[in-house]
Amino acid sequence: MSRLTFLALCLLLLVAAPARAAEPPPAPPEQRYQQALRLLDQGQPQAARQLLEDIVAEQPGFAGAWIDLALATYQSGDPAAALEHLAYLRQQFPLSLALLQQIEYWERAWQQASPSLSPPPSQAWQGKLNLDYGYSNNVNGGLTQEQITLTLPGGQRLALPLAPEQRPRGDRFTQLGLEAWRRWPLAGGSLYPLVQLQAREMNHEKDYNQLDLQGGLIYQTQPDPAGRAWQASLLLQHASLGGNTLVQSSRLQLQRLYNQAGWRLAWGGELEYRRYPGLPLDGRYLWLNLALAYKPGPATQLGGQIRLGQERAEADQPGGNSREYELTLEASHRLENGASLELQWQRSHSQDQAGYSPLLEDDARRSLWRQQFSLALRQPLGTRWEARLALELQEQHSNLALFNQRAHQLSLGLSRNF
Predict the structure, then answer these.
(1) Fewer CB within a 10 Å sphere, N or C end of the chain?
(2) What is the distance between the terminal CA atoms of the chain, rounded to a whole angstrom?
(3) Where in the chain are the domains?
(4) What is the pTM of this model?
């Protein structure tokens, strides 16, 4: 047989041989993650667990997949492994306060391994109900000085004593709060509708009863392998004082998120419109923000945020447009007995771009400095309940003495997760 004939026969055999079926490549992690969420909602936690284990093996910095893996693992009947996943989350990722409290609730519940305490599916409403009782020494936003000085035409100055109702008045209060949210898989990401309600009833100063209602939608894309995602929010607020509408606002936010083991970064912008019925204070705001959270240890988390803003005021607003900035620093630490200590300090500045009033320091431009410090101690009481003791200090200074204020507040509360 010639060499040419031999090569021809080999070629014929290769062509005639049945081709081996190539294994299809695995679907992208984003698609498998959405499939896992659907399996969880359909009551198939074991199948969801297998998918999620593969995803976190490929993307260990995917915090959301670790959370759902913990849920799927517990629902599969393995609470010990589920608790290990929650411990990993605590140690490796900076968590928001709401998520941290939810994880603490799951830890307490799963340690008992009670089927009645199984976590709800991702499409069920979750949240917290709060009840607080406390005292504030300045419920009416009273001024710190006893008199104000007016500047009259010709340079004359006139000092007028403040009426007693303009000075700080203290009172006890009862406050009811509700936070609720849920998650829907949507277009390769997650949609979160949320509602927040806070109602404060004063013991004597009924004109200063408060109601704050907020609601909206948050959409977050599936994080990529580097932990990057986009988040868009539409939030509405209605606040009333003494039964009368105080402010109505709407906010549109867009943020870029980076979440990796040990730290979390977010930056973006916000458009806000505030309307004060009956008052010349309406304005539109543009905000830029940068936030960073860092976890130096399994029990400690540090965070900070800076916001820069520009207000475009309505034509008749005193002081005209203004420039704003806010700096917030936060720290939380979990104690050995399970309690948590939380601190927050915030400082902000607002500078008007036009004179506030000819009667105040010859139409000087108002400059406001605000400072707030809060300290809270949270102690779990069983699986669903939690006690909270909180102290809050507030102070506001201005070049116009009419806006100087100071207040402190102490409260004791109970919370229930659902």
Answers:
(1) N
(2) 83
(3) 29-117, 126-417
(4) 0.77
